[in-house]
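Quick board copy: two proteins, each given as sequence then tokens.
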Amino acid sequence: MSRTYTIGQAIESLMRDPLPLRFTAYDGSSAGPPEAEFGIELLNERGLSYMMTAPGDLGMARAYVAGDLDLHGVHPGDPYAAFAFMMNHTKFRKPPPAEALAIVRSLGISHLKPPPPPPQEHLPRWRRTVEGVRHSLQRDAEVIHHHYDVSNTFYEYVLGPSMTYTCAVYPTEDATLEEAQHAKYDLVARKLDLQEGQRLLDVGCGWGGMIRHAAREYGVKVLGVTLSREQATWAQQAIKEERLDHLAEVRFMDYRHVQEAGFDAISSIGLTEHVGVKNYPAYFGWIRDHLRPQGRLLNHCITRHDNRPRETGAFIDRYVFPDGELIGSGTIITAVQDAGLEVQHEENIRVHYAKTLAAWCRNLEENWDACVAEVGEGTARVWGLYMAGSRLAFERNEIQLHHVLATKTDENGDSGYPLRHTF
């Protein structure tokens, strides 16, 4: 006769070592030490069904976002400490078939029918039907809308006054997030060697932070483009409030529809992740064609620690960045070079992104009630999960952040790049 399991016993049986945190379930069972610093509470049967029908990160994320599973010992705006503890101290085992069958029977065959996923979940890649082609104009517009058109007010709470959703550069350990975002924009401007009267194109411009910085601090005429209508509206208003509209403009459009060319500089800050690796040749070729001779490109994007292709993971793909792709800096540099641009400098600033994410989580925690009122608790939980998890990934060198600076060297071999850089 096969053994029967409570939910708590089932969890214990799936662990290689004793469970180091406290687990409690709606059936009254539990596992792990009662005095543990962190705890997981499974609140209902739907949560169990999520976990049984999508084992691993996706099932737990569904239960957590839906409010069927809670974490104890951390705030939902910043569950970093619990994540770090679990990654350091929990190892799962794969039970033999007979044991797995006994667990399923004990917990209930009915729980193998998947509940509808939370409304925050985007369709998996293989079920997305918008033109059916990843990174087509229409499909890119859809997935950008999914992530960036959540609520400008929500992003104001999380990102702070800079409204900048990319890695900051901390000039000192104790610099504020705003100081670090200003330093990031100024570093980009110096790498591009911006001069008054020049023309800058910022592709994937977000809420216009780089645009306003370049216009205000350097007197540059700037065009920014974004596929997020909410971002474009917010950015245009910010430009008017700063009285920069004689220099700066943001358009709600795909960068591929920009007709102007001959730019002195192009900044791509956080867009390459959405382009798709197979589209790098077309992307960097497009940038080359829109730069003047000796013009500069600064490409700022999240990268992997190696150049081996791999999926982003179900949670990130369905809840955070649909169709997003990451690869190592070597692949990016190769694509930039193959497009005919000369790479002059590259830099890895991943440790700065870990600090940036910690600051965003702190903002989310401090403004939790307002964020929940604005977008709902499920969406707020998604952001807490992904930002805390991303912080861990940057800290552990699983992902990185690279700057690649390149020039459109002219036919005479003149790049316009100095003997010694000044940034």
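And the next:
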Amino acid sequence: AIEDVRDKTQVIEVGPRSYLIRMPIVNAAFFETDEGIVLVDTGMAPAGPAILEAIRSVSDKPIHTIIYTHGHVDHAYGTWAVIEAGETPHIIAHDLLKPRFERYIRLRGSLARYMSQPEDQLPASEADLVWPTRYFSDRLELEIGGETFVLQHHKGETDDQLYVWVPGRNALASADYYQGFLPNAGNGKRVERDVESWARGLRDMAALEPALLLPAHGEAIADPARIRDELSALATALEAIVE
């Protein structure tokens, strides 16, 4: 699986010192700063080495901070490769990620059946995950390398989800709030999502007027008008469901 991800991974420079790592199923994003790398998400567990190699292909700066946008297995499980390489990043997530990780360990067999995955591919103990070193509840502003990174929480696909706004680069890492289609809001195979909060998050993101959208799934968008239209259209659709 590690080699498969390596073969299918590419790193794309989407702006000055700003990158999107395209992998099967999911993306990661990272920003090079004067103080080090800020990495948003670490993919699935087998993706860890490919992500580290993608970063090292363009920068030799230390990995300063890792941000988990939420605790799904395709977003927060590749960190082990960064740690094994000797990096010592700050790892930041929302408060609700911790009980999510704990629930995944406790309900390992149930989760495997729910996700149609082999049980041995899911964490069996706390040692199988790399846990955050810092949590926050609503909004967190970080100053790294002279730049501001804003972490904003809104319940959406998960209760622990957040987006990352980098105002100095007019760039938005949108996690799973935006995926380019009407999302699954919940059914017999998916947890029911907080559609009202999800729509509010999309409205907030559109109001930032980003020039660069880095989604966790799909291609980057560098057209400000299209970004605004896409986020607003999805918010309108979710609000219609609520009504």
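Board note added afterward: The longest helix spans residues 224-242.
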